[in-house]
Specification:
This protein is of the alpha+beta class. It contains 32 helices and 38 strands.
Length: 1018
């Protein structure tokens, strides 16, 4: 064995660490370069994807606008053709009666919302009449381009001129001109229809949706007819020089181009489309910077993450390099340590299994009196007088097993002196060779010291073991210092001997609340009312905090007057026990989620508040709160999210209630607020208003913000009851009335609410037996095709024949079914029964039709919904394509991803999907695309006024256009008049349902209607 490392070994170690350092640096550089390349490629691809998405969206919008423009032009052309052929108009022209022409044109223009005016001019160009007013000033339009074109080409059907000011109404119009020929086909004048540019503005508003979108309408000769939003210099501009126009001229139907216009200084992405059948084209553009805004934001985030990761990698590299440096230092330290061991205070002896001494340090040589080479030539038995050869193998087996052994033995020096020592044996395997690296310490002096203090140590140990708590001997005169045990000092946060304790100091450090109790316990013991001084109190310790202690003691000395002068006792820390007791009390009386009073504490506090209100003749109000749709949070986000909402709500309520009021959580999402000492019951309504207002701010959850509302019921003492349970029950009844009234409101309790609550309970109870008693029946409202007039389907609607109440309206029992979750078995029954009847009619030889059923949001969240649908189809034998499931827009806004998966599963079964009540909720083109509905149902709220309200008419037109564009059939609900039917037919609606054709009828009546092949007269 050598005592130092060779120079070659040290050099080899340094070279190895250097190579590792170089490899790590090279690897980091490679990772850095690869990261930059990958990030660059990813950013470029996302850039291309952002532009491609914008281009696709522009093409889709131009298609919708192209259809709208085409329908507008066809409607205008139809109007002019009808005028030209109308006998009334021809008679007015024949007699040249301006008043007659004005009246006729005025009546016609009212039918076409896209027209601002209608005018007629003679072949001389003199304006004969206008729909706007009569009489009119003498105006000649012979020099107008549209007149010249119509006169030069009288056989042409029409001519669309540039946007210009109407000389009669002084408002910009787009002239739509057609020539009038007399019986000899000679040019006799023109009819000018003034298209209102604002008509397209409405469509633009419906499409823009807060986006920076530009719409342009242009002729095929390149003249811009209209631009939205309006921009000076754009209308009438010739755009035929632009690159994309070459494709328009070549007959290409649609395309994409980019333009940076000098008028608005914005680079835009345009999609363009030729208007089919018309010499027109449309283009829609969006600001390129707005399209790339999200891409820039994501790029910055990506670069930030990459930069952070590179920084982290750099930090890791620096850390590893520093560790390598530390390793080099450690090797040097090991070398120095070995040098230190050579001359350390302890002896070091290395032995092999044969007992040969293989290494000794200088301290060993000095203590034994041998030279190093002498000891290395010896065996361990030569220096161990008590060595036993038969025990040596056993010792090595134990050392191999335990690795570390300790023993006390005696060794002898060269002079034969024997000395005690303790040996720490350590097993080491070095280069395949086993060693016992023993650290030997001479304990001769320690043995003598130990023997000297054994007796005193035993006495001290007995005294300390006798006391498991702090001990004190306290003089009661307040000036002399007490004698305290080390444990007593430690309990108060001091080191043993550091505390200077006196009776006055003990009293000063008591908690103010507990001081009177401690003094009272001292007096009771002094007066003989108790056997000892015993008290639990809080005392300030050295760190400044208060902890609970329990003290027991007795007087041991008295002065000449018999007054106690000394107190001896014990002190124990009982803080943990007190905290456990407080926690038990809290769990028994307070809600663990919100920290509010629970049901038990509420009853106790309310009982006391009622007693006080009755004693002082005061009013008291009980507010019962129930969160609306709270179950949605627990079902979708988990109970932890629900607990966060409850905790935040409790915080808000604490800020509203007064100090004298009682706030509690009954359980679930129910809270009770007791307003004490009310001068006027109306104040409870003011508090309820403040609570409702607090719900305008959404709740912050880990998954995002969540908005909800609450329904509140109010009962007043003594008007609505004298007992806590009665007041809470009546407030609960009033709360349910608030929910019935549409939620997010409050209601005071009234006597008739009990009757309504009882009726609701009776309905809910009866509903549970209705399925078993076959009280439900399906009615069917036919759906009629506007192309053939034949029945193509029906919507299945549930009716309840109550044995006592007769026919119960769905409006009355469906909300109760949803709240009680009875909607699940009822909805499944509707699906089974509808499929059964549809299959039965087909087997009877009737034409196959589609049966539509409504599905509530709760049904869509059933885990086995797809299995239930498949079971209904299998049991009935109905093919999947004849079943249609209707969902409302609100369903799409709840847990979008989960709903999308469910609807995709329904589609995979072959079942059709329709979107009901479209336009009444969160209408979204994006959701229409994602959910791939087969049918779009226009809500009856829009249909009812389409013949009289231009806004509703425009909305219906837009909905129909969107549905057609996305490849869906469009059905209008609630059609009741011929005017509504005519409008919907002209707008291109596929089918209708409503009282115009049939109200909901029984299954037997609907079967008879199919047998008779009743249809709609078109």
């Amino acid at each position: 064995m050598t005592n130092t490392l060779s120079n070659s070994e040290q050099a080899e170690s340094r070279d190895s660490l250097g190579r590792i350092r170089h490899v790590l640096v090279a690897l980091f550089i490679c990772v850095f370069v690869a990261t930059l390349v990958i990030q660059g490629i990813s950013i470029w691809r996302s850039y291309q994807a952002a532009l491609a998405k914008a281009e696709q969206e522009m093409l889709l919008l131009t298609r919708a606008f192209e259809e709208h423009v085409g329908r507008t032009m066809e409607s205008t052309m139809f109007a002019l053709s009808a005028i030209e052929q109308d006998a009334v108009f021809q008679s007015c022209v024949a007699v040249k009666d301006p008043a007659c022409l004005h009246a006729y044109l005025q009546r016609v223009v009212a039918r076409y919302p896209q027209l601002s005016s209608l005018a007629f001019a003679w072949d001389t160009g003199e304006l004969a009449a206008s729909s706007v007013k009569h009489p009119i000033a003498k105006i000649n339009v012979a020099n107008a381009q549209f007149f010249r074109v119509a006169r030069s080409r009288p056989q042409a059907r029409y001519y669309i001129a540039e946007q210009q000011s109407d000389p009669i109404i002084q408002h910009d119009v787009i002239p739509f001109v057609t020539a009038i020929l007399d019986s000899k086909n000679n040019f006799s004048g023109v009819i000018v229809a003034g298209l209102n540019p604002d008509y397209f503005q409405k469509f633009y508003n419906s499409m823009a949706n807060n986006k920076d979108i530009v719409i342009r309408l242009f002729r095929d000769d390149g003249i811009s007819l209209a631009r939205y939003p309006f921009l000076a210099g754009e209308v009438g501009r010739d755009i035929s020089h632009q690159n994309f126009f070459e494709r328009v001229s070549s007959g290409t139907e649609k395309g994409i181009f980019y333009e940076s216009h000098s008028l608005d200084q914005a680079a835009k992405i345009y999609g363009w489309h030729r208007v089919v059948g018309w010499p027109l084209g449309v283009s829609i553009g969006i600001d390129r910077d707005a399209v790339l805004a999200t891409w820039w934001r994501e790029t910055y985030i990506t670069l930030g993450i990459a930069f952070t990761l590179l920084l982290a990698g750099s930090a890791l590299l620096i850390y590893v390099l520093r560790q390598l440096t530390r390793l080099e230092r450690t090797e040097a330290d090991l070398y120095l340590t070995k040098v230190a061991i050579e001359n350390g205070a302890d002896m070091a002896i290395w032995l092999d299994p044969a007992g040969h001494i293989r290494y000794v340090n200088a301290t060993t040589c000095h203590r034994f009196g041998y030279a190093e080479h002498d000891l290395l030539a010896m065996r361990f038995r030569d220096i161990n007088p008590d060595f036993k050869p038969d025990s040596w193998p056993k010792f090595w087996n134990l050392l191999r097993q335990h690795r570390h052994l300790f023993d006390e033995i005696c060794l002898k020096t060269r002079t034969g002196e024997s000395f005690p020592c303790e040996v720490h044996s350590n097993y080491i395997l070095f280069k395949g060779q086993e060693y016992n690296c023993a650290v030997v310490r001479d304990i001769s002096e320690r043995r003598m010291q130990e023997e000297a203090i054994v007796k005193s140590e035993q006495q001290l140990r007995l005294a300390l073991e006798a006391s498991s708590t702090g001990l004190f001997d306290m003089p009661l005169d307040g000036r002399r210092t007490a004698i305290t045990s080390p444990e007593y000092d430690r309990l108060l946060g001091y080191e043993p001997g550091e505390l200077v304790e006196t009776f006055d100091k003990w009293k000063e450090q008591l908690h103010p609340i507990d001081k009177e109790q401690a003094v009272s316990a001292y007096r009771d013991y002094y007066a003989g009312h108790s056997a000892q001084f015993a008290v639990d109190f809080r005392r300030k310790i050295k760190r400044g905090e208060f902890r609970w202690f329990q003290t027991r003691g007795k007087f041991v000395d008295f002065d000449s007057r018999g007054k106690p002068s000394r107190l001896i006792g014990t002190m124990t820390d009982i803080t943990e026990r007190k905290e456990a007791q407080d926690r038990i009390t809290e769990l028994a009386n307070f809600d663990s989620v919100t920290g509010l009073a629970n049901r038990n504490l509420l009853r106790d506090e309310l009982r006391l508040a009622l007693a006080s209100a009755e004693k002082y003749n005061r009013k008291l109000a009980v507010l019962f709160l129930d969160l609306d749709r709270f179950k949605t949070i627990n079902d979708s986000l988990g109970h932890s999210a629900g607990d966060m909402v409850l905790s935040q709500l409790a915080t808000r309520l604490r800020q509203i209630v007064g100090k004298q009021d009682i706030l509690s959580r009954l359980g679930g999402d129910e809270f009770v607020l007791v307003l004490a000492d009310l001068p006027n019951p109306l104040i409870a309504g003011d508090v309820a208003d403040r609570i409702l207002s607090s719900f305008q701010q959404s709740f912050t959850l880990e998954a995002g913000n969540f908005a909800t509302s609450t329904s509140i019921g109010i009962s007043v003492f003594p008007d609505d009851g004298h007992d806590p349970d009665v007041l809470i029950k009546n407030a609960d009844v009033a709360m349910y009335q608030a929910k019935t009234n549409g939620r997010n409101n409050y209601q005071y309790f009234t006597a008739d609410m009990n009757a309504r609550a009882s009726e609701r309970l009776i309905l809910e109870t009866s509903m549970r037996n209705a399925l078993e008693n076959n009280e439900f029946e399906l009615y069917f409202q036919p759906q009629v095709s506007l192309e053939t007039g034949l029945i193509i389907g029906a919507e299945a609607l549930i009716r309840w024949h109550h044995p006592e109440k007769g026919l119960v309206s769905p409006v009355k029992f469906i909300p109760i079914a949803e709240e009680s979750r009875m909607i699940l078995p009822i909805g499944n029954w509707v699906m089974l029964e509808a499929c059964r009847l549809a299959a039965q009619w087909q087997r009877a030889g009737l034409a196959p039709i589609t049966i539509a059923i409504n599905m509530s949001p709760m049904q869509l969240h059933q885990a086995n919904l797809l299995q239930l649908i498949q079971t209904a189809l299998d049991q009935s034998g109905l093919a999947a394509q004849y079943l249609e499931i209707e969902v409302t827009e609100s369903v799409m806004m709840q847990e979008v991803e989960q709903v999308m998966l469910t609807l995709q599963g329904i589609k995979r079964l072959g079942v059709k999907l329709s979107l009901d009540d479209f336009g009444t909720g969160y209408s979204s083109l994006a959701y229409l695309k994602r959910f791939a509905f087969d049918k779009l149902k226009v809500d009856q709220s829009f249909v009812s006024d389409i013949s009289s309200d231009p806004n509703d008419a425009a909305i219906v037109m837009a909905i129909i256009g969107l549905g057609k564009t996305l490849g869906m059939s469009v059905l209008a609900e609630g059609v009741e008049t011929e005017a509504q039917l005519a409008f919907l037919r002209s707008a291109g609606t596929d089918s209708i349902q409503g009282y115009l054709f049939s109200q909901p009828i029984t299954a037997a009546q609907f079967e008879t209607m199919q047998i008779q092949k009743k249809g709609l007269s078109l």
